[in-house]
Amino acid sequence: MLIVLGTRGEIKVNHMDDDAIHTEPVDELATAAAPVDAPVPFNKSTADVILRSSDGVDFRVKKAIIAEASTFFESLFTLPRLQAASDEYRDGLPVIPMTEDKNTLEKLLRIFYPVRDPDIDLHEIAPLLDAARKYDIDVVMDVIMRKLEASYAKTAPLKAYAVAVHFHLTSEAVEAARYYLDEEMEHVPLPEFDNISASAYIRLLNYHAKCGEAASGLAKKFRWIDSSDDWVWFECTSCPGASMRWYLKSNELRTPRTWWLQHMERSADLLKETQQHGNLCSGMV
């Protein structure tokens, strides 16, 4: 028996045909190992239902806590749906098989159970988001989205961008794209990019290029410079001046020194490749 969601959100239960006759020999060594109990606090005798992970770990939990966090389980726990969903009992408790493995299921439960929040690595975010959406657990979605934007967008922006795009998390994708401006352009295949379209990756590259142009432009046009200040690159009399004049902030035409203009030209090339967190192009994402 396995719990699945229908196309309209309804709960479906797949049962094996108990009357089927199997003529193939049974290899007892190949049969699944007996389930084991999950660690504290998911092994308490006060539980009233068991969630069994795909790799055979039993999580003894309280229906009231699960139902409060998940509208999916709130519906499932109402009779006769729970009876239909479980064809196995252990220690008198109904056993509900889950498609998530032990690690994903444990961290999913710890996020909304009254225990310390779990540590979550970036590679664990996608399966947790999948489970949170499948079981309608809003609190898990909120926690993961905040972590994706506040932490992983900074430390691993390219991977965070791919995860956010895959799950249609717009603000998280934008934040990751901005932090990616702090990094050198990578063209290394990432597993996370298997789940997004080529156009999503191209948008990221175009955004990076446009921000580079915007940053580079500051070193080519000087209307952001206040002409009322006595800048040495305008006022120095012992340095040769450039052959052209530039408009400053107040529309005043000034002639910069040649050394400064050469420095700004080199800076323009560097800024085109490296920007800082999208400060110059926040509207381009």
Automatic annotation (TrEMBL):
SMART domains: BTB. Residues 47-113 form the BTB domain. InterPro entries: BTB/POZ_dom (IPR000210), SKP1/BTB/POZ_sf (IPR011333). This is BTB domain-containing protein. It comes from Laetiporus sulphureus 93-53. The lineage of its organism: Eukaryota, Fungi, Dikarya, Basidiomycota, Agaricomycotina.
